[in-house]
Amino acid sequence: MRAGQAARRHRRAQLVCYEDWIGGQPTAYQWPSFDENSASSMCYTSGTTGNPKAALYSHRSTILHAYAAALPDVMSLSARDSVLPVVPMFHVNARGIPYSAALTGCKLVFPGPALDGKSVYELIETEQVTYAAGVPTVWQMLLGHMKPAGLRFSTLKRTVIGGSACPPAMIDAFREDYGVEVLHAWGMTEMSPLGTLCTLKNKHLNLPAQEQMKIRLKQGRTIFGVDMKIVGDRGGELPRDGKTYGDLYVKGPWILREYFKGEGGDPLVDGWFPTGDVATIDADGYMQITDRSKDVIKSGGEWISSIDIENIAMAHPAVQMAACVGMPHPKWDERPIVAVVKRPNMELSREELLKFYEGRIAKWQVPDDVVFVDAIPLGATGKMLKTRLRETLKDYKLPSV
Hints:
Rossmann fold; GMP Synthetase, Chain A, domain 3; 2 domains; 7-stranded mixed β-sheet; 4-stranded antiparallel β-sheet; 27% helix
């Protein structure tokens, strides 16, 4: 007992008061002057489809990105907002929100390591957050905590969801159950990161809710400073008709020219950065990701979007999380299967979920199988790691028909 007391006294003796610690330091700071093209920060790609690579940002590119991100049709930040980026700083500087927040003078709230639904909800309420940004997996935990407890938001009005496609069921839950507007966003580490954000145009405001939803499900229009196009297999630009899909290319003043120390060689194609996404662009400029080029499933010469299959599964009330991957098939080249995590205390059979797809997707696009798993591997930024999921399922065999 005496030894314990002595140890506690020793620990107290090592404490230094913060005011005493800063008391002997200068009260003024002389900001350095340097070229705007000097390096300001470095972030690594998430490595969901390959080894992480470093993107180096300049002060100039970061400031330009902050200006564009704060515009009304993008994040629409102001000094009246309390902003919570539920994304880590190492994830593209928390999507650049700290810079746009400082630029506009809004309150900035950081969540720390506690990202479970209860902790995030209590932080939103305590700090009177009006605007939050995160990935779908975090919001699933938040909504999963709120619904059983009958909780409501008192201040939250908008949330930007990116990192992966937001399931329609989640958009409906936020809007209809809690009165929170969901804004789809898209970008990449190589883009600092914002490329598009989905807000409606004036002509869309009087459309029926179902028609508006078709627009909200898209990743949105380019923010000022970003150029975007889709190209075909031969490199030619494809029409903006909302139906034709191709490889998505971008360029702009805050978009990467090369990776740090030239890793991977020159990534650009005629000055454009190939994103690795497959997408459509409509006549109004709204872009929609149909899949990652490495995740899209080629079956019998036709393409199947893993995102569409995941979104349908996520609409089932017993599904907590779903990931679709392609599996080798002797006749059709590849066939989709869906890995599913069930909600706690809920039952769901393979046959029940496959039947759920009927009428929601073309028959030939329905997954060949459902694999129930305890968890789907996630990266540090909350994205599904399909490379690791495929490794887990390396011994899986498609069911014989």
